[in-house]
Write a structure and sequence with these properties.
This protein has about 100 residues and is mostly beta strands. It has a domain of about 70 residues: Roll (10 Kd Chaperonin, Protein Cpn10, Chain O), CATH 2.30.33.40. It is about 0% helix and about 35% strand. It has no helices and six strands. A six-stranded antiparallel sheet has the order 4-5-1-2-3-6, with no helix packed on it. β4 and β5 form a beta hairpin. The protein is elongated and about 55 Å long.
Length: about 100
């Protein structure tokens, strides 16, 4: 994973900014995978998080993830964005499938 410089980026509501981990280039059995066979990454590290969505009573709902968490998300989840030459994904909290660790 690339080193991340300080990012001037604040997601709104229940959105998070995720830095995807690199795709696997070698299979579990040791076979080198060509670019066409590599799956798009569906894991990443939270590098920025919004304050949480507003509830009906006006308070903020607690975010299920925080900075530094490693998460798994669906292959078509979120939107791609490039900041400072690094590609990230913006996801809603409900698009995150699991938190690792």
């Amino acid at each position: 994973m690339a080193k991340t410089a300080k990012i001037a980026f604040t997601p709104i509501e229940d959105r998070v900014l995720v830095e995807p981990v690199a795709a696997e280039t070698v299979s579990a059995s040791g076979i080198v995978l060509p670019d066409s066979a590599q799956e798009a990454p569906n894991r990443g590290k939270i590098v920025a998080a919004g304050p949480g969505r507003r509830t009906k009573d006006g308070s903020r709902a607690e975010m299920p993830v925080s900075l530094g968490d490693e998460v798994i998300y669906g292959p078509y989840a979120g939107s791609k964005v490039e900041l400072n030459g690094v590609e990230y994904k913006i996801l809603r909290a409900d698009e995150i499938l699991a938190k690792l660790g």
